[in-house]
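thread from #wetlab-drylab

HS: before we spend reagent money on co-crystallization trials with pyridoxal-5'-phosphate, can we at least see a predicted complex? here's what I'd submit
DV: go for it
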Amino acid sequence: MTRIPLVDLAAAHAEVAEEVEAGFKRIIAETAFIGGAEVAAFESEYAAFSGLPHAIGVANGTDALELAFRAVGVGPGTEVILPANTFIATAEAVARTGARVVLVDCDPATYLIDVDAALAAITPRTRAIAPVHLYGQLAPVDELRKGLAGRDIVIVEDAAQSQGATRHGLGSGVDGIAATSFYPGKNLGAYGDAGAVTTAVEEWATTVRTLGSHGGLRKYHHDLVGVNSRLDGLQAVVLRAKLARLAGWNEQRRAAAARYHELLAGLEQVVRPVTLDGNVHVWHIYCVRVPNRDDVLARLNAAGVGAAIHYPIPVHRTGAFADLGGSFPNAEAAAPQILSLPIYPQITADQQARVAEELAKALSAA
Ligand SMILES: Cc1ncc(COP(=O)(O)O)c(C=O)c1O
């Protein structure tokens, strides 16, 4: 039985292998391990891809979020509103600045932040709202922006899962700031940890760059208490090779999602994902909802289908953030039912048919 992985990183590597090997040789010959021309080139290519003037490479997506938060003035005495059904890093990054995490519920159909709930959670201490572009589609940032008109609150977008996604033709970070992750399994994945911050605001871009290089842009001049969070040359080689293919790969993901949509149409127990009007989705994750999820997941895994859960425990139910308390019925109802099916650009129609077949079998046996 051949396994169908959740994500096939080897298939992606096969497409870029020659470029990556040549690039690694170049970096090693130049010993340009931290920073350097390759990093600068990737930053300007990623900025252009994002339609923004500034992209700053950092060590991972969690740092990207933390530095973006700090750059816009999030810190002790302030609050940041974010959805309860995100990966822990969104909350962690806020906590690391010394600010207070304020959770809100998600929309029951798209799992994106509930805009009304976010606006209702604003207090005089709110400095930022952090919508998460979960699974690869943009949250309704436009609606959030409308609701925030006249208030000094920044939208810090968690774009870790949405490289290349647009809403009404616009990408993330267009009039705020966005943080992304290049964790290997992401749509644009490095060969280790990496991340970036994108923004149109030059002052924020400079602060992020300063914070990420020990608080100073000139060697041994430290103006802020910063951190060491830099993108390295080897990762930039990989990211440049993959960025050149990302638009095509995202198109292949959309085709794969459309195939699942048809294949699963006949399975009554399966709730298929919903795309918001105006969104171009990049399908980082294809998330369905099923009854008896844990049993179905175990059966799929036993049958060689690499399904998974994103995410099984809402933030307020984790040990780390249990003290926040609160009740978020949509996030809590989704957590035991959501199921991520294998998706990646190179997945074949045959592989998807087998996933659908195994899912049908698992549902009837569970
Ligand atoms: C929604 C979300 N936010 C933040 C992160 C953190 O990124 P990283 O793992 O690169 O620190 C991730 C990915 O892991 C993510 O999926």
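DV: The mean pLDDT is 97.
HS: ok that's useful, forwarding to the group
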